[in-house]
Specification:
CATH class of the largest domain: Alpha Beta
Number of strands: 10
Largest sheet: 3 strands, parallel
Order of helices and strands: EHEHEHEHEEEHEHEHEHHHHHH
CATH topology of the largest domain: Rossmann fold
Number of helices: 13
Helix content: 25-40%
Distance between the termini: 41 Å
Radius of gyration: 21 Å
CATH superfamily of the largest domain: HUPs
Shape: elongated
Strand order of the largest sheet: 1-2-3
């Protein structure tokens, strides 16, 4: 019998999989497997300049090596743009999108007074195109979604209720780019709905995006998924762990002979699933992850106890042979 719940692993194939992304994917995968949800793999490859088939294949290989699996053939966002064009037409019919040819510098000059020091990134309604041009015609033009004043409530399964004022926070945001592809915010909303995604597990740096995506989903007549935003792991530069952090590339560790159980053990330790660094198999992580353990991950007291930093000690432990 098919499950009514479904989640997705959605890597951006612009480089090798690193420890930060892997931790989120492992938590999403384990929660889904322990809860009986369906799992889909979707490559978000609309960045044509950086996303490659080779990266897609390498990411899938790394995920399988770690012990993760999914329940249908992997998909790529770039395969067909028709669903996104259809969504743009729906937004056009409601008078919610307009072309924007302004450069970032022009927007900055128009919104910030000289020498004021104001670094606001909110795109104001005063810069919107004339109403008679609010049509989706030229796909090689940026288009923005017109945000009306007011607040949006995001209910997160882990951290509760959050209130955002999208208009004040970012203003009218881009939903289609001059590269002739949908922007991230629109692409994920359309794909999540079309793929039947009910639950999204991702880093808490994307929590503000949830408000924008809810606005788009509502405009398209779609439900929003349940959100599960997990705390990020940071590098020693105090920035979120990403491809730029040396030593975070899982493929590099694999080439150096590090077994997947050590990678998973470190990710589990970062997530408060075990009290110390020790090797752990993928099936064992399933037994440790539940809605309750996910909520404890962001509990204030547990957060203080769990490491949130990829340290030199972590790197050394991965390369060591002790348990």
């Amino acid at each position: 019998m098919s499950t009514p719940f479904s989640t997705r692993l959605a890597p951006s194939p612009t480089g090798p999989l690193h420890l930060g992304n892997a931790r989120t994917f492992v938590l999403s995968w384990a929660l889904a497997r322990s809860s009986g949800w369906k799992i889909l793999l979707r490559h978000e490859d609309l960045d044509a300049q950086r996303a490659t088939l080779q990266h897609c294949q390498a990411i899938e290989e790394t995920l399988r090596w770690l012990g993760l699996d999914w329940d249908a053939p992997a998909t790529k966002q770039s395969t067909s743009l028709e669903p996104f064009r259809h969504a743009m037409k729906t937004l056009e019919e409601q008078g919610l999108i307009y072309p924007c040819v302004l450069s970032r510098n022009e927007i900055s000059l128009a919104t910030n007074a000289p020498h004021s020091g104001d670094k606001s990134r909110a795109f104001p309604a005063s810069l919107r195109a004339p109403l008679d041009s609010w049509h989706f015609k030229d796909e090689t033009t940026n288009y923005r979604f017109a945000v009306e004043p007011g607040t949006t409530i995001v209910q997160d399964m882990l951290t509760g209720e959050h209130t955002f004022d999208v208009g004040a926070d970012c203003g009218d945001f881009v939903v289609w780019t001059k590269a002739a592809v949908p922007a991230y915010q629109l692409a994920v909303v359309v794909d999540d709905f079309n793929h039947g995604i009910t639950d999204v597990v991702r880093g808490d740096d994307l929590l503000p995006s949830s408000a924008r995506q809810q606005l788009l989903a509502h405009a398209l007549g779609q439900p929003s998924p349940r959100w599960w935003h997990v705390p990020l792991v940071f590098g020693e530069d105090s920035k979120r762990l990403a491809k730029r952090n040396g030593g975070a590339d899982i493929a590099t560790y694999r080439k150096q002979g590090v077994p997947p159980e050590r990678i998973l053990g470190l990710l589990a330790w970062w997530s408060g699933l075990q009290e110390q660094r020790q090797p752990l198999s993928a099936p064992s992580i399933i037994d440790l992850v539940s809605e309750e353990s996910m909520r404890s991950l962001v509990d204030a007291e547990v957060t203080r106890e769990c490491p949130r930093l990829f340290s030199k000690e972590d790197h050394a432990w991965l390369l060591s042979s002790d348990s």
